[in-house]
Design goal:
heterodimer; A: about 200 residues; Fumarate Reductase Cytochrome B subunit; 7 helices; about 70% helix; B: about 450 residues; alpha+beta; five-stranded mixed β-sheet; about 45% helix; about 10% strand; elongated
Chain lengths: ~200, ~450
């Protein structure tokens, strides 16, 4: 089966650190919010781990950002400037996952080095990487030292407002952390995309 | 010869020593006599006023004690002044002042305050800004005046105060003093540790402020415990925030009842909203909104904030929360730091004890807080994002609506793959019927 190199090493390093980090952040986030209901670790340990991993993820985010800013691979995130085409492709992709896949229809998206994401995936990742993740880091840093950033927190409406934004994005990531690997398992084999994210090579059907 | 000289030297030495001892003794006795002596004019007054039981019946039926302990007065700092400096109206010609009408003991004390202020202007000025003076202005009949704390006829330097008995504060604040006496501070003082605080160390002697109203008490804690912040930073995440929004006693007086006090602030001026003197609106408005009398609920709290925001302040009325102990007595039950609350779970758990009691407060005209009860649900309602934006305790005051969304996210996250897998299995099973490939 022909293969193409779509996941360069920095992207793979970023991805797996991000994956482990986000799982840890979600587990510790649950522990922090639901102490008494969940008792995997002490509240203090959960907070300390959550803070440290948070900073690791911020640093890791810059690995992703700098790689795409300074290489031509940034095209994978380029939006389709034709909204009708973008809409049509997204609907086709949704139709595939919701119906066509069960009939054995082929995936309407064909991976290439500069277009590795399908229309729906590309749009979702742009929202995640350029909006939700930075916003989550920002609110997280504010909550890490509320007193130090009290001026900014007050400007945003108070600590409860900042925390609510942080929790709302957390809620999105809770759903994402299950759905993302499941969608990744819908390649031509269950493990195809996982292997690709380890080796860098996607097998072409 | 040598022996004779030796004995002569001994006799000379002994004589000299005797002379020195006699001179020192005489000087000391003279000094003490001078210290205790009162002037001739004072003695004239004491001739009558040192008689025990000397008193005067007042118009309201009270008895004004006129007896002065001569010995105590002789030792008093006021001895140097004599009687006439304070009692200038009592001259030999008109004394005893039969025509002088004193309405009550209280009125006499109030009148004498002015006399005190003529020498003790600084202390008087400090007192003028105190909660005691504010109570006095409000007409509180038991608000302390100078003579309630100080005996003008036995005025002693502050170092001579019997702090172990709590005097004079314990006269009015007996239960608070009892709590203090049993605390780590009171016990240390009993053991002779003079650096341990007494009442005036934290509350000051004359500029006494309403303790719950400001940051003065906390500042005073930090004045002695200057290493408190770095010590807390060693183990407590967001230590500065904890120290700012939680009263020291809430953690250092274990076993006490705690509550959340939500304080009204002007968002633009960043200042406490204060009740206007003579126009008490807070309680009136709160009562009007709280129709069932169960305490303000989330909607009522929003209405209250809107009403205050319409009062023409710079910004809008917002709430800032503070975790504190339930009473002044409990605030003094401070224990050794080994017994302090160190478990995060004490507060960061849903349904924790401190979040069962909630009050809304405004600064009263005398500096004391005017409080109104609120229902516990105000802390976990979705409207709290708007009304209590400035107060949130992770885990402890979490919003229920967000909990439901978390459950929904889990349901979607786990449910979508399960449903999709099930549909895939079903489609493979019935592939022929829907016209698909069996190996899809």
């Amino acid at each position: 089966m022909p293969r193409i190199y779509v996941h360069p090493l920095p992207v793979r390093i970023w991805h797996w650190i991000n994956a482990l980090g986000f799982v840890t952040m979600i587990v510790t986030g649950f522990q922090i919010r639901y102490i008494g209901l969940i008792d995997v670790m002490s509240f203090r340990t959960a907070v300390v781990v959550h803070n440290w991993i948070g900073f690791v993820l911020i640093a890791n985010f810059f690995v992703w950002l700098l790689f795409y800013l300074f290489t031509d691979k940034i095209t994978v995130y380029h939006p389709d400037l034709n909204p009708t085409r973008q809409f049509r492709r997204s609907i086709r992709q949704m139709w595939y996952y919701g119906y066509g896949i069960f009939k054995g229809e082929p995936n309407p998206h064909h991976i290439s080095v500069y277009q590795k994401f399908n229309a729906m995936q590309g749009m979702t990742y742009q929202v995640i990487m350029l909006l939700l993740v930075p916003l989550q880091f920002y609110t997280g840093v504010l909550l890490w030292d509320v007193e130090r950033f009290s001026g900014m927190i007050d400007l945003l409406g108070g600590v409860r407002v900042v925390d609510t934004a942080h929790v709302l994005i957390f809620i999105f990531f809770v759903a994402f952390i299950f759905i993302h690997p499941y969608l990744a398992s819908l390649g031509h084999t269950r493990s195809a995309h996982f292997k690709a994210m380890l080796t860098g090579y996607e097998e072409l059907e | 010869m040598t022996g004779t000289k030796f004995y002569a030297d001994v006799i000379t030495g002994a004589t000299l020593a005797l002379v020195v001892m006699v001179v020192l003794g005489v000087t000391s006795l003279t000094a003490r006599a001078a210290e205790r002596a009162v002037s001739k004019a004072t003695q004239q007054c004491l001739d009558c006023h040192s008689v025990k039981g000397l008193e005067k019946k007042l118009a309201n039926g009270e008895t004004l004690a006129l007896h002065v302990d001569g010995a105590a007065f002789a030792k008093s700092a006021h001895n140097l002044l004599g009687c006439a400096v304070c009692h200038a109206d009592a001259t030999l010609e008109n004394h005893p002042p039969v025509k002088k009408k004193i309405a009550s003991v209280r009125e006499n004390s109030l009148a004498m305050q002015k006399v005190c202020s003529s020498c003790h202007a600084d202390q008087f000025k400090e007192h003028e800004g105190s909660i005691h003076a504010a109570l006095l202005r409000e007409g509180n009949p038991v608000a302390p005046v100078c003579t309630d704390c100080h005996n003008p006829h036995a005025a002693v330097p502050k170092a001579s105060y019997d702090v172990a008995s709590g005097a004079p504060c314990s006269k009015c604040h007996g239960s608070v003093f009892e709590a203090y006496a049993g605390s780590v501070h009171g016990q240390a003082r009993k053991q002779g540790r003079v650096e341990a605080p007494v009442c005036s160390t934290c509350h000051s002697a004359h500029d006494v402020k309403a303790a719950a109203g400001g940051e003065k008490i906390k500042d005073n804690c930090h004045a002695c415990h200057s290493g408190a912040l770095p010590a807390h930073q060693n183990w407590l995440p967001n230590a500065a925030l904890h120290l700012k929004t939680i009263s020291c006693a809430a953690c250092h007086a274990p076993g006490v009842k705690r509550r959340v006090d939500l304080r009204l602030y002007d968002s633009a001026a960043q200042k406490r909203i204060a009740e206007k003197e003579g126009v008490p609106q807070f309680e009136m408005r709160a009562r009007a909104i709280d129709t069932e009398g169960k305490g303000l609920n989330a909607i009522a709290l929003q209405s209250l904030l809107r009403e205050f925001s319409r009062d023409g302040m710079e910004g809008k009325a917002i709430l800032r929360g503070r975790l504190e102990v339930d009473s002044g007595v409990e605030a003094h039950q401070l224990a050794d730091k080994a017994k302090a609350v160190g478990q995060c779970e004490t507060c960061h758990r849903a349904g924790s004890d401190p979040f069962q009691r909630v009050t809304i407060s405004i600064a009263g005209p005398d500096g004391r807080l005017v409080r109104y009860g609120a229902q516990q649900e105000v802390l976990s309602s979705a409207t709290s994002i708007d009304s209590i934006g400035g107060f949130y305790v992770i885990g402890g005051t979490r919003i229920k609506l967000l909990d439901m969304l978390v459950a929904l996210a889990l349901l979607v996250g786990v449910g979508v793959p399960i449903v999709h897998l099930t549909l895939g299995w079903l489609s493979r099973r019935y592939a022929k019927k829907i016209g698909g490939r069996e190996d899809s």
